[in-house]
Design goal:
This protein is α/β, with parallel strands linked by helices. It has a domain of 145 residues: Rossmann fold, CATH 3.40.50. Helix content is 38%, strand content 25%. The strands form three sheets. It has a six-stranded mixed β-sheet with strand order 2-3-1-4-5-10, sandwiched between helices. Strands 6-7 form a two-stranded antiparallel ribbon. The structure holds zinc ion. Zinc ion (ZN) binds next to loops.
């Protein structure tokens, strides 16, 4: 077997760091911060959880990687705003390599979101998705979104990008998510890689370090 295997670097991150850790533990063993996952015999993906909470250091690691995986369990406004801030700090080409993963604990059948009007955190059963309800706090009526739909809407995820669903502790779903993320990144890599670096330099000169000014 002399077939050449591509090696690709990916960052795993989450507003809840323990979600990223459990995801990597499922793939690479308990306590792993780094690991290697083979995707269908065509690529070795080197996964890394950057140390620290989401922030500038994590954004730098994502910019240096081939792609990133954002692991989300809760979808309340507080959690989403952490993810949103991090994504906004990335240049568009790096944003496009971020693959969204909805993670569940084994047996978990509900998810957390915020009331679209007053922001009250709500725990919602999966079986209630797409039904009309009203916020128990402010009585605002709304249709309960599916988790994937909510993510697409919040982060403007284009329809061509899959959203993976994994159960933490389940090797098969977690491996599939890595394969999905790899495909999403490799589909757009060829013509964009050199442009990404030029854009980075431009942005740095114009808005300086530490600015979180969003690009339109
Ligand atoms: Zn409300």
């Amino acid at each position: 077997m002399g077939a050449a295997t591509n090696t690709t670097a990916a960052v795993v991150f989450s507003p809840q760091v323990d979600m990223a850790e459990q995801f990597l533990a499922t793939l690479c063993g308990e306590g792993a911060r780094h690991g290697k996952v083979n995707v269908n015999g065509i690529a070795d993906v080197l996964l890394e959880i950057p140390s620290g909470l989401p922030g500038d250091a994590v954004a730098e690691r994502i910019k240096g990687a081939d792609f990133a995986m954002l692991i989300l369990r809760y979808m309340d406004e507080e959690t989403l705003s952490v993810a949103r801030a991090l994504l906004r700090s990335l240049p568009p080409a790096a944003q496009a390599t971020v693959h969204f993963v909805i993670a569940r604990q084994p047996g978990e059948v509900e998810f957390k979101m915020s009331c679209p009007k007053c922001g009250q955190k709500l725990l919602i059963k999966d079986s209630l998705a797409f039904r009309r309800t009203q916020c128990p706090r402010c009585k605002h009526p709304f249709t309960i979104p599916g988790q994937a739909d909510l993510l697409r809407q919040e982060f403007l995820i284009p329809p061509i990008h899959k959203i993976s669903r994994v159960q933490l502790g389940d090797l098969e779903s977690c491996s599939t998510a890595v394969a999905n993320a790899y495909r999403q990144a490799s589909a757009r890599r060829p013509e964009e890689k050199s442009q990404t670096m030029r854009l980075d330099e431009l942005l740095t000169e114009q808005i300086g370090e530490g600015s979180d000014q969003a690009s339109p």
